[in-house]
Specification:
This protein is an alpha/beta fold. Helices cover 41% and strands 13% of the residues.
Length: 448
């Protein structure tokens, strides 16, 4: 096993990082391995040299973290010889194994998610308790756009100074947002992020536009997740035999109808090179990943032979021509609209649930779009009535855009209370509104 510095930090990690979302409760996801099957894999990975393990508090509602604690104790693994990375942001179900529906920081989930100082402190304390030890790298699982960035960075600095955390990392956001966080930390003399956990593989290379060049230029280590696309890159294109390939909803984001032809060609070329070099397809996909500067992929390793394959992949070297051959068919697949996006949603909607719309807005923003999301707080029931009342806002938004007025960057959320405004203007704009709805839902599609 090779060990490399994580970015410009002094922390060394194994070139392959074991993803521990694989371990937990089948009630959380049907393809997970429970304790009896999972624990031996920690020992096997450790003996194979994979000393860096990535988890999150939300994975199986904390059970993944608890299994790390049990593995360290059962196999007498010295704490100083492993690097434990965990994440916070999403809510943890404290009353069962089932995953919580991702909602907003309100009602039953108030202060149980996000990156407020309170939640960061509470989540770190809970993770340390479950792990039975300190955290080497604490990562923010997503960016909380409702909490001031200075509050986020101050709290993260404080958990390092408390001794519960050694380093901090980030995950899944726009490059300009990540740069803002780093600049705030530098301005105040606080600890900065040493790593970025982003989505990156042969089938999804959108991060090459901004995030990866920024991280490489500023000494931030890259620990991409979905390195083999939930197994899609490890078997022939038509073989979707794994439980995860059948059930993982996130695959819909990177496997779209528009890019199916080019995606299949990429997988075919991985298969072609694997036959040429007489190695498993997974090793070709991993060899491509580690060929990039500062990249240390995270892998879900569900069997001893998968661990052996991952370690052996480091011996597979691709030529520049082979790398270009694998990359050549790629077609950008982001569903991010290029124009500013105006979204308006009522709390009650029988056609498009509020949480689905809110998550879509956040995902578009994560992919680089600029989104204004207005939530109607009136006691309005039904999709059609809410949309009719919103017609004036749609028209004002369009008028501002045609006038060249500035638009806020990233994701901006506002709460509004709308009366019927001008009914005549509402009726006049109904045709334009319906066209907008058709465009977003049927032509663009909501991100999964």
């Amino acid at each position: 096993m090779e060990y490399v510095n994580l970015g410009d930090s002094g922390l060394k990690v194994s070139r392959i990082i074991m993803g521990c979302m694989t371990f937990g409760s089948k009630k959380w996801a049907p393809w997970l391995l429970e304790e009896e099957e999972a624990l031996p894999l920690f020992e096997y990975a450790y003996k194979a040299g994979i000393n860096t393990w990535d988890t999150a508090d939300a994975y199986s509602n904390g059970k993944s973290e608890e299994l790390i604690c049990k593995a360290l104790k059962k196999y007498n693994i010295p704490r100083s010889r492993v690097v434990i990375m965990t994440k916070l942001y999403f809510p943890v179900n404290e009353d069962g194994d089932e995953p919580l529906i991702q909602g907003k920081n309100d009602g039953p989930l108030v202060n149980r998610m996000g990156l407020s100082r309170k939640h960061i402190m509470d989540a770190v304390a809970a993770s340390v308790k479950r792990l039975g030890t300190y955290i080497d790298v604490l990562q923010i699982h997503r960016l909380d756009r409702e909490t001031p960035k200075e509050e986020i960075m101050h709290a993260l600095n404080d958990v390092i100074e408390s001794g519960d955390v050694r380093y901090i990392g980030a995950s899944s956001m726009a490059a300009w947002e990540f740069q803002q966080l780093q600049n705030i930390a530098e301005k105040h003399g606080w600890f900065k992020f040493i790593s970025m956990q982003n989505l990156y593989n042969l089938l999804y290379r959108e991060e090459e536009r901004e995030m990866i060049p920024y991280c490489q230029a500023t000494g931030v280590g890259l620990v991409p997740w979905f390195a083999v696309a939930a197994g899609i890159l490890t078997r022939p294109w038509d073989d979707k035999s794994t439980d995860r390939a059948k059930t993982d909803q996130f695959l819909k984001l990177i496997l779209t109808e528009d890019t199916a032809e080019t995606d299949s060609e990429i997988v075919n070329r991985v298969e072609e090179l694997s036959k040429k070099k007489r190695v498993p397809m997974a090793q070709i996909a991993l060899a491509w990943s580690v060929s990039h500067k500062g990249v240390n992929p995270i892998l879900g390793l569900s069997k001893p032979e998968r661990i052996d394959e991952a370690v052996a992949a480091l011996k597979v070297k691709l030529t520049e021509e082979e790398i270009k051959y694998l990359e050549e068919p790629y077609k950008p697949k982001t569903e991010t609209p290029t124009a500013p996006i105006y979204m308006y949603h009522g709390r009650v909607d029988e056609l498009l649930p509020y949480n689905v719309a809110l998550n879509a807005g956040h995902k578009w923003a994560n992919l680089g779009a600029n989104v204004l999301f207005q939530e109607d707080t009136d006691d309005i029931s039904g999709h059609i009535l809410t949309e009719l009342i919103n017609v004036p806002n749609v028209m004002f938004f369009a008028q501002d855009r045609f006038a060249g007025k500035s638009f806020s960057k990233g994701f901006t959320k506002r709460n509004v209370i709308n009366g019927l405004a001008n009914p005549l203007r509402s009726l006049a704009g109904l045709g334009e509104l319906m066209g907008s709805i058709e465009d977003f839902i049927w032509k663009r599609g909501w991100p999964g």
